[in-house]
Amino acid sequence: MIHSSRRLLRFTPLLALTVLVAGCTTRPIAQERAARDRVAELARIRAELPEPTLHAKSPLEDYLRYALLRHPRIIAAHAEWRAAVEDITPARSLPDPKLMFEADIADMVMSLMPGLMFDIMTPGKRAAMGREAAANAEVAYQTYRATVLQVASDLKKTWADLAYLDTSLVLRTETLAVLERSLAFAGADYTTGRGMGTLEDQINANTETARLRIEVENLNDQRTAVRTRLKSALGLSRTADVPPWPSVFTPSPAPADDDTLWEQVLAANPDLGSMRAMVAMAVSEVDVARKIRTPDFTLGIEADVKANPIMWRPSASMTLPIWRDKIRATIAAARNRHEAAAARLGAEEIALAAELAEMTYMIREADRMIAFIDTTALPGIEQSLDSARAGYQSGMISLSTLPTMELMALRMRLEKADAQRERERALADLSLLVTGQIPVGAPLPPPHATVDSNAH
Fold first, then answer.
1. CATH number, domain with residue 343
2. CA torsion sign, 27 to 31 to 34 to 36?
3. Which residues are CB-contacts of 144 (< 8 A; sequence separation ≥ 6)?
4. Beta strand 109-120 with 311-318: parallel, antiparallel or unpaired?
5. Share of residues in the chain with pLDDT > 90 (%)
6. Whole-angstrom distance, CA of residue 30 vs CA of residue 150
7. How many domains does the chain have?
8. Which residues contact 337 (CB under 8 A, 6 or more apart)?
């Protein structure tokens, strides 16, 4: 028992060293601190966002905030980003020490040697590996931002579709009433003998009325489908309670001019941000590849606790990176991947410029159509309708002509509703390119809160 206690006392320094090493922490690199600060900033932003309570008259911003705080796709992307940030620490840390044990045994235990072994990697290599992991975390963050924008865009498109359907159903209901009056007027003209071709008017009115009733039925079915899509866009499952359907639809404000939009795209587009992070990752990969020319070391120490006095056995080893063709190939491959990443970044900027031009054209086209209908078409039809009413009173035209003019006005209002829907959908697509198009309340840090993966 006394010999066992002595051996334990002899082993105590090694045991204390093991416990000390097990409680060690490593120093974070600058990119890791910046990434963790951004995670904390986003947590603060999300905590400060008020929990929206939806009702029928809630604005689009409340529906967006509801979706962006609850949608499973956003929650998943957020967790993936946080996991990527946590991966930076293992990437830039030293390998775990190894607890060793050796013994010499003949007829009995001749020596008993516990020990510790450390793999030593140069700080420059570990820093380069940490920067590579930080760039990967930046890619995950940009993926999270892209997911937020995609969910918001889907919701805005569904919102626009639902607004169009509600307006279209109201206008088609009014159109049915006008057609019924037209049919009654045509029948009265035919019975009294006023007008020409009133039997054909009756047939056309009957046909148009039947077609319009089918359209109304189809639109009601479509509205049910769009409401289900709105529920999905809010992040609600099929079995979740039905949310209040919005009844107030406000047109989105006009976007900024093209130059300002392009500056916003360059500063905050998540696809470009992801491409830049991939370029930074490739740069770090080149740094890591260059560091393979630097040897790695292994240091260890063992203690023969059966010897008296204790016999210590230090050991050391070093890698020999002598295969120059392997080193050259590794560095060349990393450089080529960097070149490919930089080229993809340039290609993405070119594609986004064309996409932005197409979207702004669609928005301007819709704005021109809406302005034409409001300032020219509808006032002209209203003027013609007033003239037709005066002509009927003077006996110059048939009574059935009046509903025809009313139908023209209703069809023009339908065209306006369709143009408004296309405008809102184009603005929703634009929000995928420009973060600034998302209303205030989105759970995103400001665009300037970025991580410089090239900083040392």
1. 1.20.1600.10
2. negative
3. 74, 77, 78, 80, 81
4. unpaired
5. 27
6. 31
7. 1
8. 282, 285
